[in-house]
Design goal:
By secondary structure, the protein is of the alpha/beta class. It has helices at about 20-30, 85-100, 120-135, 150-155, 185-190, 210-215, 230-249, and strands at about 5, 15, 35-40, 45-55, 60-70, 75-80, 105-110, 140, 145, 160-165, 170-175, 195-200, 220-225. Helix 2 packs parallel to helix 3 and helix 2 (about 85-100) runs parallel beside helix 7.
């Protein structure tokens, strides 16, 4: 069955009841007793579950097999983006980035950020829908909003330039999407394969000169995202796509 269900706690031999939000798909897909489901937990685990009862309000699924499906990629993508005034635009970025492949998303509050109250529960719901849609088993890490200066301080190059990722040690490559001159190099030409990438994406008004200076002093390199001006969510998604593409070459 090319449809994923979601349940956070999967143990071999256990019997689970899907929440109605998930179980409603049993009726849509005409699932019968004895059928098998593919269930993910958002932590890289895929399970096979035998349907004991397809009742939407009181489903019962027995976990018969457990697979650790997603080996860690030899690179890590972390996009730090200023929230947009319209939550829909950030949710669009979140969904598409998960489908393409992203490991971590942070929200930064810059001097030119537009006010936005992000609803974490809604972001989680959108993330779960996206991993199911793209047949993934792992949710990205989503961080709470943080002021730009505090975020930069946390990821200052003086702290560390390498990080562990599974069994690998990755170089940390820091970038800020800002084009001070027409000759600023594009992201793809500055990044190298198999690294931990951290990319800062500003609001519609971009970063202030003070923020750019602060980022540069913290080890971030200015990069271009092409010759055209992009919306915040488009710039964030472009960065995600470019880094995934770089590592597939």
């Amino acid at each position: 069955m090319d449809t994923y269900f979601f349940y956070p706690d999967l143990e071999l031999g256990s019997q689970i009841t899907l929440p109605e939000e998930e179980a409603k798909h049993l009726k849509t897909l005409r699932v019968k007793e004895g059928d098998f489901l593919d269930i993910v937990n958002g932590k890289g685990i895929l399970a096979k579950g035998k349907v004991l009862s397809p009742n939407v309000k009181n489903s019962l699924i027995e976990i018969t097999q457990i697979f650790d499906t997603e080996a860690k990629r030899p690179f890590y993508i972390h996009i730090a983006v200023a929230a947009t005034k319209s939550a829909d635009r950030i949710e669009w970025f979140l969904e598409k980035a998960i489908e393409i492949g992203i490991d971590e998303i942070s929200f930064i509050e810059t001097s030119r950020s537009e006010y936005n109250h992000l609803k974490s529960d809604r972001l989680v719901k959108k993330s779960i829908a996206a991993i199911k849609q793209s047949l993934r088993a792992t949710l990205p890490k989503i961080n709470s909003p943080k002021e730009f200066k505090d975020f930069i301080k946390k990821y200052h190059s003086d702290r560390k330039n390498q990080t562990k990722h599974g069994e690998e040690t990755l170089e940390i490559q820091r970038f800020i999407a800002y084009t001070p001159t027409d000759t600023t190099a594009v992201l793809e030409s500055c990044a190298t394969k198999n690294a931990y990438y951290l990319v800062l994406i500003g609001s519609e008004g971009g970063f202030s000169p003070e923020e750019v200076h602060q980022a540069q002093q913290s080890g971030f390199e200015c990069v271009s995202l092409g010759e055209y001006r992009l919306r915040t969510e488009t710039a964030a998604l472009y960065s995600c796509m470019a880094l995934n593409s770089l590592n597939r070459k």
